[in-house]
Fold this sequence. Notes:
By secondary structure, the chain is α/β, with parallel strands linked by helices.
Amino acid sequence: MKPDNPNRVPLDVYLSFVSSLSGNRMTLFVGVIVHIATCLAVAAKTQSAVYIPLSIAFLLVFSIRMAIFRRFDQVDKESLSHAGIERWERILVASGACTTALLGFASGYAIFVVHDSFAELACISVTMATMVSVVGRNYGSRFAVDLQTFFCCLPMIVCSLLAMDLYRGLLSIFLIPFWLTTRAMANGVREFLYENVIARREITIIADRFDTALNNMPHGLVMVDAENRIQVVNRKACELLKIGAPERLKDRDLGAVLRYGARYSFMDASQPELILRQLTQVAEGNLSRTLVHFPEGLSLEFSASRRADGGAVLIFEDVSSRVKAEQKIMHMVRFDALTGLPNREYFGQLVQDYLAKHQRKSGPLGFMVLDIDEFKHVNDMRGHVTGDHLLCAIAARIKQASGNAILGRLMGDQFILFFPHAKEPASLDIEIRRVHAAIQGHYEVDELTFLVSLSAGYAILESTAFAMDEWSVKADLALFESKSRFKGGISGFEREMDGRYIEQQKLKADLREAVSAQALHLVFQPMFRADGSRIECAEALARWVHPEKGSIPPDVFIRLAEDMGIISDITRFVLFKACSECMNWPDHIAVSVNLSARDLRDADILKVVADALAHSGLDAARLHLEVTESCLIDEPAAVRAILAELRARGITIAIDDFGTGFSSLSYLDTLPLDIVKIDRSFVRNIVEDTRRLKLLRGTVHLARELGLKIVIEGVETEEQLALLNKHRSTDLVQGYVFSQPVPSQNIPLLQQGIGRRPVQRRRNKVA
């Protein structure tokens, strides 16, 4: 690498070379003293007057060079351009050349004019010594070396040749290789220094980059030698371990540094040895990485690798956020987000862990399921936010009352408890009933007071007989038994419950088979005008006659179908069958079909209804679809959209059992309705109870103000019918006062016999 052309030399390197021309000023001071002393000595020896002015010239040139150096020192080096540096190089080289020119003249004059051996020896020796010093002082500029050696040697060569002395002439010619050698030496020094400057510059850049990367990396890094002494440590490592500044840790023992950190920072006293021990295992390949938890929520993950020289590189990072996120995710997976109790899966794991830990222990274990009675009404009346707050309050009280029992949230408004080993079943039974009694009562939530009762079912068995699924079924059976008796009760599992459960499961299987084989049949309860003059519609009602048990009540098998998820299959069967049967009736009679909550959970019901109408050929205006409030609770917006689409197709929409819920009035205005079917509970005792009659009339008035048609269900007596007609409280009547549910073929017959009904009714009165 030869920096012959300054234009190819980096600017900062070129400036450093030029700056070297003004360095080593003490040698210049010593040199000018030697020069002046030599000239004065030669003048005294030879009586030559020329050397006196030369002494003065040396002093003058030295003074000028010092002034130039001071001026150069004052220049802002960083603002110098390449041309500016080059100009200063010429000035400095020229000032140095003046000194060598004077030396060359003094030597040449001594050879050619003075002819004194002392003068020649003194002047030539000083000149040759100066030429050697050129290598040390002016290596930074090839131009300076060439010019100064030229001015030193040329006068001596010329004057030696002019002296016409053969031997002096030969000796002077030898100055040429000396000149070239000096020039080559200076160039070699310059090239060597140039390469080193460039290399150092690159190393500095690399070191700066490495240092920047090292100290800005998100990981902590510590490099130790074979004796575990720190060689390299970055700022992040010092910050994470709180062990001081990096520059103070060089060559310190890592263990001692960690122990110091344990003494004066947040680290536990046992952690330094733990870290070193685990790092040794990681470095030896026994562990891929290790996670160390520190106080203040700090978690560091370490990895290490051995170096060829026996040392190791330790890298670690702050994974506190990741650990917290994993813990949060794990908590979300294991615990219920609302109550903070273990969910069903984690509850089962906790129970299994307990049993594995106490597998040698014997004694009875308890398993209880709790169900909040009528919790749906809280959500309906007070909103889900208040309902959630009540759930949390109940969960907190159960947790407080359950002692050492394992508690979990089963689903919705159900909780599950596992009672550990007891001495005897009787004491465990008492404990379970104590917990159940403790959680009943009043709860203060959102400035409201709720009287809460919880039904409970439990099972007590020996630990050797424990099986989670079986116990859960047994507790559920006991809970079902408890809820069937009275709210807020508690029942323990008894063996005969298994028989009832098996019977219910068989009934479900038979129902599934009956639905699949379309073994259900329909009856229809007509809806008459209030004066009994005409049948306007007939409600389709599904019936199931079991081959062994006989007729199964609709409320039984419909509830089973909803639990089994096959209620939509029954709806499809009823729709197709009812539409087909309606085609056999007089054209003015419509058919009404009930839809369940499951039917309205998606838009598939639209296609089912369309297919039923297309298959039967029934006009959409003759189809009525009835929905209850329970259909509207989960997804009211989606249900509203489906009902609006059905109504847009010409189908009549009715709300059934109106008045049995807690927010019925709001549905009248928000849902696309045509008919309101008022529940039979409004009609009961209206003859005797004037307040109930007023409530009925008010509800009817509100519905009519909204343009809705009124159907009264459950009208059983002539007195009820007469009172309804007196106050014009209904448009249609559905009840035993006119007809009970009948087969499809009876509907036309009933319509035909309407004209004779009043006569028959009068005859009955007379009789």
